[in-house]
Each structure stands twice: as C-alpha cells, then as structure tokens.
Amino acid sequence: MANVIEPRLGRDNKPEEWDPSKIPSTKPFMRIVTSAYEPVTTFDNMKFVKTRSLVYTPFHKEARYINFEVGYPKDAKWFEYLNDKWASYANFFVSGFFEAIYTAVKNKSTVAYVQIDAKIIDYDARFRHPSSDNRLASSPVSLSKNIFVQRRSKFLLKIFTKRLNLLFQGMIRS
C-alpha cells in the first residue's frame, strides 16, 4: 500500500529542497496505514481521531512519526462499524483527501498534524490491542461552519511555509 516517492534531482544531480508552496491547490488523495492514540471526538457533524504512523521517505535518513487527524462524517452509515474499533485494533487503512497541516502545543512541545477528510476506512482484524478495553472513548465537542477549519483553528498556532519545510526536513520532532 506504500508508494515510493523519489526526490526530484536538480541540475547538479543532487536532490532539490522540498517546497510546499509548489503543491497544487487541488487536494491530493492520500492512503495511509495508521494507529489511533487519542479518543474519538465529535465536532459538529464529524468524528475525529488522532493517529500516528511511522513513515520512511527518501528525503530523510531515518523513519519519522507523522501525526494525522482523521475526520469522517458522524452520520455516514458505512462508518458506523468504526465506533468501537479505534480502541480495539492497532492498524487502520485510511484513504481520503488532504485538508491541511497545522501545529499545536502539547506538553510544552510543538506537534504538527496532517488533517485527512476520510472517504474509506478499514481496520486490520489480525492486530488487536492486547487489552482491548475501549481505552479510546469518544467525547463530544462543538459546532462550526467548515468543520476542518474550525477543528484546526481550535489548536492552531501559526502555519508558515518555513515551519512546514522544517517539519518535512525532520527538524521538528513530533
């Protein structure tokens, strides 16, 4: 399920710096394998869960944890089966549209989150948590107009191209 991303080479045959401002304005479709680490929350008509994935790219010397905030419609019938699965299973397959990247301060350190508007979510039934005790319960939150913007603004500090560059160059640790 992983895609290999090769860095673009410059005229001198060295990898070019990644420039987030060159990302097209259309929303890319993403596929990830991830694990939930915080409770599911409800925000207006959406459910959100914070997840984390260990990702290796040719842009870094070591694998890095990337934090995701997966959002999906609360009333969608095809996602009802997920209600009790986030706490019980270790691996989830998520496909959806990239919404944004935002940072938040958590335990006196800056954490970056990639928001995904999920369209397909499935779990790997082979990998259950050893103590499936629903440790990630759900909790209600508030209302908004654009749910992803409102959710992001709750934790939003500042989003700068420079900060995003640093994140993907491995200088900001999550």
Task: Sum this structure up briefly.
This protein has a single domain, classed as Beta Barrel (OB fold (Dihydrolipoamide Acetyltransferase, E2P)). Helices cover 10% and strands 36% of the residues. The chain contains two helices and seven strands, in the order βββββββαα.
Characterization of this structure:
The protein is mainly β and 174 residues long. The protein has a single domain, classed as Nucleic acid-binding proteins (OB fold (Dihydrolipoamide Acetyltransferase, E2P), Beta Barrel). It is built from two helices and seven strands; from the N terminus they run βββββββαα. A five-stranded mixed β-barrel has the order 1-3-4-6-5. A hairpin with an 8-residue loop joins β3 and β4. The radius of gyration is 17 Å and the shape is globular. About 10% of the residues have low confidence.
